Amino acid sequence: MRVTVIGSGYVGLVTGACLSDLGFKVVCLDKDEDKVKMLQAGEVPIYEPGLKELLSRNHAEGRIRFTTDAQLAIDHGDILFIAVGTPAQEDGSADLAHVLSVAAMVGRNLKDFKLIVNKSTVPVGTADRVRAAVKHELTQRGMSSEMFDVVSNPEFLKEGAAIDDFMRPDRIVVGIDDGIHHEKSQRMMGDLYASFNRHHSRTVWMDVRSAELTKYAANAMLATRISFMNEIANLADALGADVDQIRRGIGADNRIGYSFLYAGCGYGGSCFPKDTQALVSTAQAHGQLMSVVNATEQVNERQKTLLVDRLVKRLGDDLTGRKIAVWGLAFKPNTDDMREAPSRVVIKSLLERGAHVTAYDPVAGHEAMVALKLDCAGQEALLNNFNLVAHDMDALHGVDALMVLTEWKNFHNPDFQAMKLSMRTPYILDGRNLYNPDALADLGIAYQGIGRRNELINLSVEPVMLETPALNA
Ligand code: UDX
Asked: Residue positions in the annotated binding site for NAD(+)?
């Protein structure tokens, strides 16, 4: 069986790389010539641990190719994955233009039976629209409209761990509808994922609409857990309780479990914000309320500004002359993805209040600049007060506070003594609860985590009062 993956973005490349590594002959199709040239030359346009190695090995061994030639790509695969983007529109609903134009393109190039597999995260009912678009093209060409099937196979890949998630899935969701091709489609999908079903079947078979909704339900559930814990954390702060102890106390209940209970400065990324919005918008379109998911989003928006609110409470609303360091820009570690990253909201808000921001991230610096330029469009002057540094410690010289926004490994055990010496005021706002509040209090560093039994653990460290702008200090 041969595989074609349409769309060489994040999901498409991971899918193509992993399937080629399982031995399938894979063709990746993308309309972006520069991207395809880059891939052919062994470069990978995104940062994902292990992806570059996997692609270059399988490329060298002839199992994966990259092309812009639609006819070649459609002829190649018995299975055609659609893995193109579904960006959120103004109203939160998913934009299906790319998916539907791929469907039409497939219909224009189809010569024999193909199994079309929807990998993109798409609203319920999209498979039917893909089916209609392919049929329309086939009818135009006077061909049988029965020479394909459309199934849904949502991805559950976490950025930074995508290869592992693909190669060691908790489950594989496959939605196939009743019809003349049902058996054949099920056999093909079964063969495709046979490597993962050797010991016990990890495939959960269902109908297409249920599979489409499963993806949204999974992401909304995970996002809800995070927002729920963020609210508990904020309450814990007010009550003098510790959210980390609460996390362990509730996680031990098998029905709850430990994962995705970490309070922080809000979730970001390409999935949770977009998918929760799309779910709310789908529900609205069908006259249904999605109150829990709606609240999840609202809590998350508030959570992103929590650290700035705390800083302002201590230093005042006007941060002119203040220097603030930020460690971690990407929405989470091991990625350079800045989509919906809390750092964007935090940095813009600091700059608007007049602060000077020095930021460090191990890989996301370039992407962060691109994102911040977008966010500050029309207010470009704000970025005069922003600079990126090449080392974490370089961000700290003379600052009034450090905000830790992403839990990169190399932030876990910093040299606190050196940090204290470098900062104008030793004050850490820990958006990922990396540090031990008591240890920092012993070191004389003011500390605020999220739900760590503190309004401010070490009140003895007073902020420096500004008479002259601190930038020259
Ligand atoms: C997520 C889903 O996990 C994945 O299954 C789906 O296919 C795509 O969306 P991803 O966006 O890559 O994956 O990242 P994930 O590791 O899930 O983290 C998402 C966000 O939630 C990050 O900003 C992270 O910092 C935050 N998070 C996660 C928390 O704040 N607390 C937690 O306990 C877990």
From this structure: 30, 35, 86, 121, 159, 274, 339
